[in-house]
Amino acid sequence: MNLIDLRYIDDLKDLDLDMVDISKPAPEFEPNRQFYFMAKARSWVKKKSEELGRPMTFFTQTFGCQMNFKDSEKLMGILSEIGYEETDDDHADLVLYNTCTVRENANLKIYGRLGYLSKIKEKNPEMIIGLCGCMMQEPQVVEKLNKSYRFIDIIFGTHNIFLLAQLLYERLISGHKVEDIWDGTTEIVEELPTVRKYDFKSGVNIMYGCNNFCSYCIVPYVRGRERSRNPEDIIDEIKQLVANGVVEIMLLGQNVNSYGKTLENPITFAQLLQRIEDIEGLKRIRFMTSHPKDLSDELIKVMAKSKKICKQMHLPLQSGSSRLLKIMNRHYNKEQYLTLVEKLRKEIPDIGITTDIIVGFPGETEEDFEETLDVVEKAQYDSAFTFIYSKRSGTPAAKMPDQVPEDVVKDRFDRLLSLVNSISKEKTKALEGSVQEVLVEEVNKKIPGYVSGRLSNNSVVHFPADVSLIGSLVNVKLEEAKGFYYMGEMVD
Asked: Residue 446 and residue 296: Cα distance in Å, rounded?
């Protein structure tokens, strides 16, 4: 039986980890190096499982954004290849938290979870606890973990997610804590195994990092600078997903509109979308998040002509005040933003536009807030994610004077929410009685015999149907608008 020396293999497709020669030195290049450590860890886990008389288990919990959830699919894929079985029990042999740090409360939530895990580990000292993700990119956080939570076994950040197998193997063999935090990277490692939540839809990273440095946001500091994946790798991944039954993909990036600028041969996001459009078998294309400053006429035209790009645009406003937008470092003003909305509505009349809005940013006056309400009235959002400003240490905004009093913020937030909800209700009402194409996504947990799905504009529809239709595109008559969703009936 000839074992495989990963130092001399180019094609990792259909690789059998049990056939890897782990007696040979580790490859110096990726992703072969990580598959080598997967094989080494797999051998260790197999022996341990035999000793225990049961499979070794892992539990993961993901906090934060879609990018984090996509990272976790890779982490779960690596652990599954190593031989761990997933469980929803946090008494597992290995517990891994993929953390978020966009708000201070996110950090506090993790500390609370660690307090709980410490008691479990006291009873099971062989349990391995790992932390990764955005929170680990903050030096003061890692310092606190090392001082107050010494039972943690593995700590790594956002830039070296792909190193899980190598770091885990080091911990398994040495028995000592492993910590590996990178300040940044230009490296993008392809071909890692993944475990997807849905068979019929999937997120696809097209870029990583952020160059925008909005004054309230910690993301550029923990995710690093923008770096785009090669379009060929993106296309190949989507083709493989489609071959495996995926009908809808969500293109992911902190600012997808700036895709391609860092490539050796730059291309625009619009050009990438055109290439993805040509993939046979793919039915729907979504993307997030779009920064208004980079939303081009080219992109709008491509969306208008496309038969696959969903009629949806998430276009974060944050504030309607040009004065505050400048302080936020958003690189557009109120008028420019409304011009973009006008262009989108003109070129794509049936588009659903959603947004993010912050209430109570430092120095926000009543006049500033009225400007926000004015934009909401004019833009006619289908829905909006509204946030009360949360001071985030490490950002310029945290040090700004004139923090808005809590009672004033609450009053403004309630007024904004009331306006957003009333507009959303009217927008939803406009499609009542029409027949729309719906992607069936899941069983409705509240109404027996019903399923739930989404329109092209991302609105949710509940209707009676057989579970066998999950993952299918079907025509549904929208019988009744309920504000943020519809009740419907499937039609031929």
From this structure: 42
Q: In this structure, what DSSP letter does residue 308 have?
A: S
Q: Which helix (H) or strand (E) holds 179?
A: strand 178-180
> 26 phi and psi, to 5 degrees?
-70, 140
Q: Is the pLDDT of residue 1 over 80?
A: no
Burial of 468 (0-12, 13-18, 19+ CB in 10 A): exposed
Q: What angle do CA 50, 55, 57 make, to 5 degrees?
A: 135
State the average pLDDT over residues 392-421.
94
- 266 CB burial (10 A radius; 0-12, 13-18, 19+): exposed
Structure tokens at 375: 């934009």
Q: Which two structure tokens, joined as six digits, stand for 78?
A: 């690596």
For residue 353, which of 393, 413, 313 has the smallest C-alpha distance?
A: 313
| 351-361 pLDDT tens trace | 999 999 999 99
Task: Tell me the residue type at 174.
Answer: S
Compute φ and ψ for 452, nearest 5 degrees.
Answer: -130, 145
Per-position DSSP letters for 280-291, written without gaps between them: TT--EEEEE---
What's the CA gap between 355 and 335, in Å, rounded?
A: 16
Q: What is the pLDDT of residue 407?
A: 96
Type of residue numbered 333: N
**Residue 435 in tokens:** 């027949």
- Identify whether the C-beta of residue 248 lies closer than 8 Å to the C-beta of residue 283: yes
Q: Summarize the confidence of residues 182-186 as an average pLDDT.
A: 91
Evaluate whether 301 touches 274 at the Cβ level (below 8 Å).
no
User: Rounded to an integer, what distance in angstroms lies between the CA atom of residue 326 and that of residue 328?
Assistant: 5
Q: How high is the pLDDT of residue 420?
A: 96
Structure token digits, residue 269: 């996001």
112: helix, strand or coil: helix
Report how far residue 438's alpha carbon sits from residue 436's, in angstroms, rounded to the nearest whole number: 6
Which residue has tokens 């009685």?
Answer: 433
B/e letters for 32-44, b = 16+ CB within 10 Å, e = fewer, are bbbbbbbbbbbbb
Q: Which two tokens stand for residue 338?
A: 């409304």
Q: Are 246 and 202 in contact (CB under 8 A)?
A: yes
The token pair at 478 is 């929208």
Task: Report the pLDDT value the prediction gives residue 2, as an integer from 0 to 100.
Answer: 87
| Location of structure tokens 């993008």 | 188
The two three-digit tokens of residue 452, written as one number: 């739930």
